[in-house]
């Protein structure tokens, strides 16, 4: 991996902090944000809607986060919130809690100083696509040196639209430490506009754009400080490892964790007294307001033997909203 931030992300150790969904200066056709994130003032820590600073800390603890990746909109209000959250996380978890920011604006020296003083480690710039190849001598070159002078690690993080030699030049000149290229993707939020621009999905793939990966790797793939982050890697490694990390941290003694990081348990509607009559140890179940949750294999056995009339095996995400993936009835 090319940076500490990328290493932690691959391990599933980065909390994703989304701060503000408005971009005052940009309207990128490839923006992947969906309806719940685009043009909103809400803050999300992973899937958790943040209603107080305590929610940010709680989500970081829920996944035992090694660091935080910050993204979102551009207005000054977003900068103010970002600095507050950075200070909060450093105060709570210490200097080893690694943070990086993904931003589509240059920000200027004062903001670089504020971010550094608040505890930011890496800053990853995403210049406007129309400026690619013509950034030398502009504020986009200047901000790389300013960020470094203020104690930040400057880098680029860009969508994999096309290969661009200028990013390699910035690396070789020492202006930027690395360039992270995200595989170009289509999402619910950008699908229509992407099609209007002539892009199509790769055959057999749910999100990757056809043809972009190979063209970029031919030009930029051999550089030692370029990392190409594929959509498959994001799903199979980053997201899955984050779920596994979260599941291990919150699991009950009777929960099973799948290879995908989901939690599996049994659910039935008998009383606690009935469980005690059947001799079920207390550590194998928990009583809810209108049902009981217990080890799925134990419930399956009890239903098979006729000790319990019905139940279901539940598979759900370990996220704060507990989205259910599948229910398997037992009767």
List keywords for this structure.
alpha/beta; 11 helices
Output the radius of gyration: 23 Å
- Percentage of β-strand residues: 15-25%
The tally of helices reads 11
Quote the average pLDDT: 90
What structural category arises from helix and sheet content?
alpha/beta
Low-pLDDT residue spans: none
Strand order of the largest sheet: 3-2-1-4-5-6-7-8-9
- Helix-strand string: HEEEHEHEHEHEHEHHEHEEHEEHEE
Inertia-based shape:
elongated
Straight-line distance between termini: 49 Å
- What does the main sheet amount to? 9 strands, mixed
**Helix coverage percent of residues?**
25-40%
Number of distinct beta strands: 15
Put the structure in a nutshell.
The chain is of the alpha/beta class and 331 residues long.
What does this structure look like?
Helices cover 35% and strands 21% of the residues. It has helices spanning 4-10, 53-62, 76-93, 108-118, 139-149, 165-172, 191-196, 212-220, 231-250, 272-277, 296-304; strands at 14-19, 43-45, 48-49, 67-72, 98-103, 122-125, 153-160, 179-183, 226-229, 256-257, 263-268, 285-287, 292-294, 311-316, 324-330. The strands form two sheets. Strands 3-2-1-4-5-6-7-8-9 form a nine-stranded mixed β-sheet. Strands 10, 11, 12, 13, 14 and 15 form a six-stranded antiparallel β-sheet that branches. It contains eleven helices and 15 strands. It is of the alpha/beta class and 331 residues long.
List the helices and strands and how they pair.
Elements (H helix, E strand, L loop, with lengths): L3 H7 L3 E6 L23 E3 L2 E2 L3 H10 L4 E6 L3 H18 L4 E6 L4 H11 L3 E4 L13 H11 L3 E8 L4 H8 L6 E5 L7 H6 L15 H9 L5 E4 L1 H20 L5 E2 L5 E6 L3 H6 L7 E3 L4 E3 L1 H9 L6 E6 L7 E7 L1
Helix pairs in contact: 3-4
């Amino acid at each position: 991996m090319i940076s500490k931030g990328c290493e932690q992300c691959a391990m599933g150790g980065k909390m994703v902090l989304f701060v503000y969904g408005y971009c005052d200066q940009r309207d990128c056709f490839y923006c992947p944000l969906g309806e719940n994130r685009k043009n909103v003032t809400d803050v999300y820590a992973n899937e958790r809607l943040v209603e107080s600073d305590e929610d940010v800390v709680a989500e970081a603890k829920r996944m035992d986060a090694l660091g935080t990746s910050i993204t979102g909109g551009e207005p000054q209000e977003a900068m103010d919130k970002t600095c507050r959250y950075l200070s909060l996380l450093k105060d709570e978890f210490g200097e080893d809690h690694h943070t990086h920011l993904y931003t589509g604006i240059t920000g200027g020296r004062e903001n670089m100083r504020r971010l550094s003083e608040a505890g930011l480690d890496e800053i990853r710039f995403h210049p406007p696509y129309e400026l690619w190849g013509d950034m030398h001598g502009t504020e986009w070159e200047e901000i790389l040196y300013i960020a470094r002078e203020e104690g930040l690690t400057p880098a680029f993080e860009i969508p994999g639209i096309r290969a661009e030699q200028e990013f390699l030049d910035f690396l070789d000149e020492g202006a930027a430490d690395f360039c992270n290229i995200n595989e170009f993707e289509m999402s619910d939020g950008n699908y229509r506009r992407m099609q209007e621009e002539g892009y199509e999905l790769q055959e057999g793939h749910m999100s990757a754009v056809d043809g972009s990966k190979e063209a970029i790797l031919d030009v930029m793939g051999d550089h030692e400080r370029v990392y190409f982050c594929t959509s498959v890697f994001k799903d199979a490694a980053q997201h899955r490892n984050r779920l596994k990390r979260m599941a291990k941290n919150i699991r009950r003694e009777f929960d099973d964790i799948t290879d995908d990081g989901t939690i599996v348990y049994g659910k039935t509607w008998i009383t606690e007294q009935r469980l005690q009559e059947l001799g079920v140890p207390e550590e194998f179940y928990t009583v809810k307001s209108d049902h009981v949750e217990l080890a799925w294999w134990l419930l399956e056995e009890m239903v098979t033997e006729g000790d319990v009339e019905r139940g279901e095996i539940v598979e759900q995400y370990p996220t704060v909203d507990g989205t259910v993936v599948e229910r398997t009835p037992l009767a």
